[in-house]
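Continuing the batch. This is chain 6 of the set; chains 1 through 5 are on the previous pages. Same settings as before, nothing changed between runs. Recording input and output for traceability.
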Amino acid sequence: MTAFTARTIQFMIAGVFAALPATAGVITFTLSADGSGSLNGTAFSDELITFTQVTDTTAITAGCGYPCAPSVATNTVTIAGVGTETITGATYFFDNAINLVGITNAPGSAFLAAEDFSLGAYVMLTGFGPTAYPLYGGSGVLNESTSGGLLTVSSYSGEVTFQAVLGSDVPTPEPSSFGFTLLGIGAIAIVGFRGSTCRRWCRGVSHSGPGAV
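Output for chain 6:
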């Protein structure tokens, strides 16, 4: 993706945020997939892993260069058969405005992410899914601190399910002209992707370790 294309996408995303209705309310993001790893030294295998962030729609910004939730130390991970723990390091959900929605602790990596070009138009302000998508090959967790000890997810299998749920007191925004802007963002992102090596998010999935891109 050229520098011009990246700047154009960021400008258009900022315009979308300005055009969206100024409704506020709780929004809960979740990503789930089957995975294997360990928590506090105890192994688990092929268990459903769900990452969750609860935030407010007014806290979603394009400060990452694309839509992202606040980086906080209150997000949770639930492992079937093990329990729910708080991730004690700062993490956040994001949509890279190209092909990924995920949770991370730093740009260029993902604890878990879904991959599909249709996700590039989602700006994280409305309800979504649950919808299953292909797993992003760079997904992984290595010795992340949680309230239950260090978490490692060495592998995932199958698809990733993404969902965003708005609080019941928040009306769904009516369709308006900003939809055309979203389509424009998606088109520009795809053109930029096809004409570049996608240095950060769209590289091939040959990785040196969990979460590397």
